Amino acid sequence: MNLHHLDLNLLFILKTLLEEQHVSNTALSLNVSQSKVSRSLQKLRLLFKDELLVKSASGYELTAKAKDISSSLNDVLENIGQLVEGKTFVPEHSTRSLRLFALAPYAHQGLPRLISDIQRQAPNMLIEVDSKPKPPFESLIAGEVHFALSANQPSSSENSLYRIKVGGFEYCLLMREDHPLAQQDLSMADLAGATLGQISLDGRQAFSLGAQLKSQARLEPDALPGAAIHVTDFCLAAAIAESSDTIFCMPASFAQQASQGRDLMVKPLPPELQNDSQDLYLYWHKRYHMDPMCIWVRELVKQLF
Question: Cα 147 vs. chain centroid, distance in angstroms?
């Protein structure tokens, strides 16, 4: 391949094409004409000797080669950015992109102050936040993001990750105001007999509260409660709780917000579970451990939290 005529702008268009998987959406995202994106796609197809993006029954999909390219393109563009900026990082002059992954409750807890400080000190940087429900370390391992904010623990196979603590969550219960259990202090046995909902932000359906009930209430194995409904959205959970007997366990800050102006009640967990909390961590992969921009962000996080 002759790289003398390679236009680096094509790689940035390719990155967005691979993310959007649609010419029109890519044009809107980049604020350029659709014809420019189409011409760029034709050049990229010639460059990589592959269709990259093909029509399917559901719209468009990536070819196998495009998927391979996608897994390494972020690293390539990141290296180009470092090459241009050099080994030092000057926040006020930087035009790099900072990519973060955080599911909704973690993003609300840890990102507003951080983003505010980054924008103040590095006004020309682009901050991209991905909050789509998926396993928390997937994007981090793939090199798609610089940092992930999560209360989950990585598996033993994900041993290339570093982390620092940035906060934590206290949990409580959310139910409708006229729920049969609303006017009493709740016990483990009360919850074991109640209709419980699960908010599965990353698509998992493991019901941790059920396991706690089995342990603390000494339930028989066949009496282990399961979640009657799984949702991936806090607002939907609040609406379901308001119109049914379903009880949701969620971070106290979200429960307080969800109950405002609605016929909902926030209740403490039974005493056996009131010490349960989750620590929130900022994770990063070793590939970015010595990156000057990421070092600066980590120092900023340490100052804030």
Answer: 10
